[in-house]
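Suppose a classmate hands you a notebook page containing two proteins, each written out with its sequence and a corresponding row of structure tokens. How would you begin to make sense of it? This section walks through that situation. The first entry is reproduced here exactly as it would appear on such a page.
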Amino acid sequence: MPDEAEVLGLVALMLFSAARRSARRDPAGGYVPLSEQDVTHWSLPLIGEANALLRRAERQAKPGRYQLEAAIQSLHCARAFTGKTDWPAIAWLYDGLAALAPSIGALVGRAAAIAEAQDAAAGWRALQAIPADLVETYQPYWATAAHLLACLQQRAEARAAYARAIELAGDSAQRDFLRRKMTALGPAIGGGA
């Protein structure tokens, strides 16, 4: 069992996550999202080990959820070597993940990746395609919605989404981060201005 493709994919996924552990917080303990993390704080040996496991899994030609999730993380971690993120490839992998294992996390991640690969409007359309009853209490949905609405200059709607994301956030550092993003929208003015 340890050499099965999905087991290797899961271990690779865990290693990619562990490789970025020290970059998730700033020196004051504040939350740092993946896109803003300082890659010099990532563990290159752990990333290398994770990539090697992922390649072993891929050779078995039995794709699965954990392998796809690990492949997405591998592309994020490639930024440590290339200085950029291949968003079209990440969006493509999320398409596969959403087809294979259409979890709420996969669907929200897919929408976020589409926004980066194409534009905020395309990401917003993908986010809006997720059934409302599934996202009512899913904090990453509201944080993603707030970000995309802010990009689309829909400030009142973004403010409301940030408020919901803050309310659902279980981590005080994440709440502080989201409050700063909401404050950056400027003063509350009616009508989405």
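The notebook's second entry, a different protein, reads as follows.
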Amino acid sequence: MKNNKIVIIGSGNVAAHLAFVFKKADLNILQIQSRNYFNAEALAKIVDADAVSDLSKIDTTADYYFIAVSDKAICQVVSEMPLVSGIVVHTAGCVPISVLDKFSFYGSFYPLQTFTKGMEVDFEKIWLFIEGNNEKTTENLLDIASKISKHVEKICTEKRALLHLAATISCNFVNHLYAISQNILEEAGLSFDFIKPLIEETAQKACKITPYIAQTGPARRNDQEIMQCHLNKLVDNEQISDIYRKISDSISDVYRT
């Protein structure tokens, strides 16, 4: 598709980042749709698009429709959308493309990244995973993906769901552990800044030499004395103690000889 006329459905984190990067790539964003008109209007002004709140009012002549809403809202959006001749995609990790089968051309456009409003990301470094309901749709999605990223791959629904699982563990779960660490430090009057170099080094090592080789710590050494010392510090917090024990047991099991 040469024109690349785009409608973005949603105004949250993913929708906003897609709008910004499409605009940066000089693609033609026709509309931003959101149930909250003020959110749609605010984003539309930034990317020189029109804002709409009613799904029945979206432009039906676009080439691409990006549904960038919460996973649980996708089916509702689809049910309210008019039939269109362009390609309709969602951006979810765990939702099959079959939810879009009321349309002739559909698929998924999954950016494997964490998005937060106000935090810019470099899309050229983001992996984009593409699935289309037929070969021509897939080719068109690969083409538009390649305009914003250097890392584009075809993927099936099942493997995309496994990617999402791995991403949830390595991003959301790990971030929650950072939050637990921050609370422990701040309750002791210590700064979270003290462990930021450790966090950065751990992430770099995991990427350079694999997480398995990079693993260190008392559970890796099966140092029961140190682990018990840590658990003693958590005696008043059963939930965190349980997390510590289960993760330590998992690490020890992996490296048990």
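A careful reader of the second entry would note: Residues 157-187 form the longest helix (31 residues).
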